[in-house]
Amino acid sequence: MRLRFLPRAAAALLAAAVLLTACGGGAEPAEAPAPAAGDGPFPVSVEHQYGTTVVPEEPQRVISLGYTDQDAILALGVVPVAIREFTGNQPSATWPWAQDELQGQQPQVLSGEINPEMLAALRPDLIVAVSAGLTREQYDTYSQIAPTVSQPAGFVDYGTPWQDATRLIGAALGRADRAEQLVTDLEARFAAVREEHPEFAGTPAVVAAVSAAGPGTYYVWSSQDGRGRFLTSLGFEIPQRFDELAGESFYAELSIEQLGLLDEAQLVAWIPFPGAENSALEQQPGYSTLRVAQEGRVVNLTDEQAAALSFSTVLSLPSVLDTLPDQFAEALPE
Asked: Residue 203 gets which letter from DSSP?
């Protein structure tokens, strides 16, 4: 199976993979399953980059508008009535690591351009848009339909850490205690991996890929992105050069002449561009001259690993914690 990715986020969320596919465009609004009881009273107020949103009562019809927000919503025991397609054209826009959390439901899939009429027709009582990269104008428009939660302040667009996203969504759903437990449990798993692999501490590492433009330009994700944060959560360090090149974005774009900068890392996790020809690092001009290539310090991710790392959510990260740390350890020098 090859992933399919949406257009806008080649220079946005996945920055190396996003092509929206039409799935469920004119379907009738899905019926929401009865949610589990929340652990907090309503109304609740949540703060984000555009102010404070008040959720007056426990939401019954939640739209997951952010590209990856469905994972936290599902992990908290709520099945959205609609989920935005991000990558992979999975059933209900939900990857295997989260399928069980659908509780047998089939939310409508939102693909292509999102318009207010489409959202209003779903009769939402909460719109979760933490990973949607909303502008102020979009936020104001969607807020006229239903209480809308944007990303927290202080992060670049599409750069909210999974912990903050989980807590913010948990607060909006009245499940703050449950969200905190999910965060605590997953952080404990990261701590266990760091203890098991002390060799990761301080080792320069990057996640990179061919860019949406194809061979000749490349993405390297910064420490402001979930992929970069996955590495730093294991103890690795993102070379400062890449953060400087990324600036206010969550990724840096390299030219073919700059591909040698990958040698500033001791480990390269490579995401082949799904469905594209010649996207493997081994197929790039100059690959054989790279020190990381000569020393075997390149780890090629599978499609599902790439998607899980690109989602970087409370549900997707456990799946890569089961596999990637050992692959990284094998690629590092003794």
From this structure: -
Q: Are 172 and 128 in contact (CB under 8 A)?
A: yes
Sign of CA dihedral 332, 264, 204, 317: negative
Report the alpha-carbon distance of residue 126 to residue 309 in Å, rounded. 27
Measured from the Cβ of residue 323, the count of other Cβ atoms closer than 10 Å reads 14
Positions of the chain with pLDDT under 70: 1-40, 214-215, 274-277, 334
The CA-atom distances, in angstroms, between 114 and each of 26, 139, 307 are 12, 13, 22
The confidence score (pLDDT) of residue 132 equals 95
CB of 283 closer than 8 Å to CB of 214: no
Gap between the Cα atoms of 211 and 59, Å rounded: 39
Q: How far is CA 292 from the centre of its chain?
A: 26
Residue 314 near residue 72, CB atoms below 8 Å: yes
Q: Measured between alpha carbons, how far is residue 1 from residues 4, 117, 216, 282, 304 in Å?
A: 10, 34, 25, 21, 9
Q: What are the pLDDT digits (tens) for 260-289?
A: 999 999 999 999 776 666 788 888 888 999
pLDDT at 33: 41
Which domains can be identified in the chain, with CATH numbers?
8-186 (3.40.50.1980), 190-331 (3.40.50.1980)
Q: How far apart are CA 228 and CA 93, in angstroms?
A: 24
Q: Which residue has the tokens 């360090």?
A: 237
Structure-token pair, residue 200: 């990761």
Alpha-carbon distance of 112 to 122, in angstroms, equals 16
Judge contact between 225 and 159, C-beta under 8 A: yes
- Calpha distance 182→317 (Å, rounded): 12
pTM: 0.86
The rounded distance, in Å, linking the Cα atoms of 82 and 107 is 5
User: Tokens at residue 245, please?
Assistant: 């090149």
